[in-house]
Amino acid sequence: MSSLIVFLKAQMSAFIGGVTDYLIMIICTELFGIHYTISIVISGVLGAVVNFSINKYWTFEAKAPLGKQISKFIIVVLGSVFFKSGGTYLVTEFRAIDYRISRLLIELFVSLGFNYPMQKYWVFKKQKTHI
After folding, report:
1. CA–CA separation, 115 and 77 (whole Å)
2. Which of 8, 43, 45, 84 matches a 20 to 30 Å C-alpha distance to 103?
């Protein structure tokens, strides 16, 4: 599979997981009154489940054992949630930008600069076959 196709599939997966994540964040914050940084943690975990499933079976068609991939993915999700929550807080509080807008800005940087490379080159890295 070409690198462009993998990249585009990964972006579609990130979009679906991101929309799930973002909507859950809004629901937690606006309907349940949870602080947006905590809502990002909750929504990040749920969005990650969606993203992992799509990436494993569709984007990267990864054949590695599920347990090994999940443990790596959890580490990536923890980093991602930390960057999203912390970055959103910093932009919201120090730039006086609404958390919903801050979150979208931070999401773009984290998705392209952290999540995609970590998933492609570490979590779902193709196993070399030995002949």
Report:
1. 8
2. 8
